Amino acid sequence: MTAAGSSLRSRSWFNNPANPDMTALYLERYLNYGLSIEEMQSDRPIIGIAQSGSDLVPCNRHHLVLAERVKEGIRDAGGIPIEFPTHPLQETGKRPTAGLDRNLAYISLVEVLYGYPLDGVVLTIGCDKTTPSALMAAATVNIPAIALSVGPMLNGWHEGERTGAGTIVWKARQMLAKGELDYAGFLKLVASGSPSTGYCNTMGTATTMNSLAEALGMSLPGSAAIPAPYRDRQECAWETGRAIVEMVKADRKPSDILTREAFLNAIRVNSAIGGSTNAPIHLNAIARHIGVELTLEDWETTGADVPLLVNLQPAGEYLGEDYYRAGGVPAVMGELSKAGLIDGAVLTANGRTVAENLVGVRIHDDKVIRPIDRPLKEAAGLTVLSGNLFEGAVMKLSVISDEFRGRYLSDPANPDAFEGNVVVFDGPEDYHHRIDEPDLGIDENSILVIRGAGPVGYPGGAEVVNMRPPAALIRAGVHALPCIGDGRQSGTSGSPSILNASPEAAVGGGLALLRTGDRVRIDLKARSANMLVDEAELDRRRADLAAVEDTITPESQTPWQEIQRDLVGQFATGAVIESAVKYQRIAQI
Ligand code: FES
Ligand code: MG
């Protein structure tokens, strides 16, 4: 199809004299709420606003307000805005997990961006999975796209102390277990962490992924950290609307921005911000859909040695408002640049390079964002482990507490390794039912293992690996045990768990062979995780593998669970729909 007098993609729908019947049919229905033929056949680009906020998605709900400013920006720059809803993705509301729906939202958004007359799109992002699903879809379709973060909530407070969304729950849960809070007091304390519209004000998966969208160059510089209710956020919405029109005119597409160098920048930023352990899953997924080579190993080689600069909960003390006031993502990237850890030549959404965007940026509060020569922690990225338990799993080095280090990593002869006997749980329900059973014999030398929590076992992957010790042990002062699992953990958890183990037990990964009482050895220096079980015994267990896989794979409850289980890959490679990866840059086809 060719369009008359315009190179805009949408004109093949709206202005195609060679096919007047279809042109009329496409055109007339978009006129019926007030658009004119003149507008639809002009050289004004049609800009989609992929609306991820709704009453079902409170974290992103403020986008319903921001979209009005986005539309004004699009109009002011000469475009025509068309807003449409995306599949709801609320981290805290969706059963069994929002992780299950990330690929569903991706598939659905690809279909919309490809199949409708859109020349560019504003991706409204916020809550954990809304960011990766939108960027994955933009990567596949490859029309000009810019992300607009909804911004974090204001800081939470309780009795003069900051309470963070998602982090306060871990502390409150321990207080409940110790009897220091009753049920009503527990709920009130947790709610204090969420005082306004916006996404989690902590360095959870949402702040991480919104920061990384900016670090990748897919949103305006300085935009990620602006709190949702601030007036600056409205201004940013307007500027984003103006920017996407310019991007369409310049034909600046995701493939121009999402290069391997951009991903490596984002990996280093993830270490410096103390980002979520969900980040490798999502970034690897985006990379696969744009066709950039990125592996789990890149997270180790590129990110492990990068220092922690951002003092946000759970690794640190502060919250979202503080992060913004201290300078946000540009201040972090500016510090990393000083140490040569940022590739400044990478192009960003606004048409300028990272280096150009960073001119003149500085830290405004060095308690919240530390200078590169005075980091909170050295070598604070993710480490990637492997062995006979799994081929790949990650551990977040920035959240290893002094208590944990003192108990497990203090042997002077062997400061990087520890061993323990495992207690194995088959899925989240089994863990919840049995964790406080005294005859499990869990003590401070135990290692807790959960399996059946990966993308196939617990469809989408459960955020459960950060298991709490039994209540009796917490009362005795043991606040965290080493945990291993093939699931994920919440980005707001402060546990140094070994997680995202791939391949997962449900598809025959090493964890499926493990039994309660086995001894496991973790060596952080050698980056190994092994069960100390002899080969002959492992062979015997392999014969029973099918039975184990069956126990840990509950029946699907919905059609999508079954479809996703058939098609999904493992966490190490992004947990994408494998058959979707070959569809690349499809808007150009
Ligand atoms: Fe939505 Fe944390 S639950 S951002
Ligand atoms: Mg989460």
Automatic annotation (TrEMBL):
It holds the Pfam family ILVD_EDD_N. Residues 44-357 form the Dihydroxy-acid/6-phosphogluconate dehydratase N-terminal domain. Keywords: Iron, Iron-sulfur, Lyase, Metal-binding. The keyword Lyase applies. One of its GO terms (molecular function) is metal ion binding. Its EC number is 4.2.1.9. Residues 367-575 form the Dihydroxy-acid/6-phosphogluconate dehydratase C-terminal domain. NCBIfam families: PRK06131.1, PRK13017.1. Belongs to the IlvD/Edd family. This is Dihydroxy-acid dehydratase. It comes from Novosphingobium barchaimii LL02.
